Amino acid sequence: MDNRLFMDMEFKDNMKPTKTENKFILDACCGGKQIWFQKEQKNTIFMDIREIEKGEISLQPNWCIKPDIIADYINMPFENNSFKLIVWDIPHKIKNYDKSIILKKYGYLGENWKENTQKGFNEIMRILDDYGVLEFKFADIDIPIREILSLFPIKPLFGTVTKKGVNNTYWFCFMKIPKDKR
């Protein structure tokens, strides 16, 4: 049994799970949109597996998770080839073993993390348009980055690492290149 926080898919403002002309960017694990400068970017669908109200983190009382769509990245409600850019910042911890701010902000992967990470990557490639870009962010708190990357069927084009205390934060860029063009 997977211990992640699963919720039924909910659509806000009667949003249909289809491709729309002006929504060509997806953040598949938006959390509190910490990485975004444009937190209300009009061409972006912000998706997360949960919604959290302000006040959950006493040291950051205005922090919250307010996605446009509540859904799981292993089974997304979008048509094939729907997005030009997808941002994927999955949780960095395997278990919910403390009450840290990191766990509140990012959640945790659960015991089926390998299978779910592979499913998530494949699902992203399904909804990413040809020549679309995936920006993948990961911090190696519980899992070495080489182990995460070994789960994916393609290698990133390039990436970078930022040292933050005891762990590293990685950014990788993937492109969905059609098989006949590789």
In short:
The chain has 182 residues and is α/β, with parallel strands linked by helices. Helices cover 14% and strands 26% of the residues. A hairpin with a 2-residue loop joins β7 and β8.
Description:
- With 182 residues, the chain is of the alpha/beta class.
- It has a single domain, classed as Vaccinia Virus protein VP39 (Rossmann fold).
- The protein is built from 3 helices and 8 strands, in the order E-E-E-E-E-H-H-E-H-E-E.
- The chain has helices spanning 101-106, 113-127, 145-149, and strands at 10-11, 25-27, 44-48, 69-70, 83-89, 128-139, 158-164, 167-175.
- Strands 1-4-3-2-5-6-8-7 form an 8-stranded mixed beta sheet.
- The longest helix is centred in the middle third of the chain and has 15 residues, at 113-127.
- The chain is globular and about 50 Å long.
- The relative contact order is 0.17.
- Mean pLDDT is 86; it is low at 1-16.
What are the SSEs and their pairings?
Elements lengths: L9 E2 L13 E3 L16 E5 L20 E2 L12 E7 L11 H6 L6 H15 E12 L5 H5 L8 E7 L2 E9 L7
Parallel strand pairs: 2-3, 2-5, 3-4, 5-6
Antiparallel strand pairs: 1-4, 6-8, 7-8
The largest β sheet comes out as: 8 strands, mixed
Which of globular, elongated, flat, extended, rod-shaped describes the shape? globular
Rg from Cα: 16 Å
Stretches where pLDDT is under 50 for at least 5 consecutive residues are 1-16
- Give the domain tally: 1
- Indicate the proportion of strand residues: 25-35%
Per CATH, the superfamily is Vaccinia Virus protein VP39
- Biggest sheet, spatial arrangement of strands: 1-4-3-2-5-6-8-7
**Tally of separate helices:** 3
N-to-C SSE string, H for helix and E for strand: EEEEEHHEHEE
Derived structural class? alpha/beta
What percent of residues adopt helix (DSSP H or I)? Answer: 10-25%
Measured distance between first and last alpha carbons: 38 Å
Looking at the overall shape, the CATH architecture is 3-Layer(aba) Sandwich
Q: Assign the CATH topology.
A: Rossmann fold
CATH class placement: Alpha Beta
Q: Report the average pLDDT across residues.
A: 86
Number of strands: 8
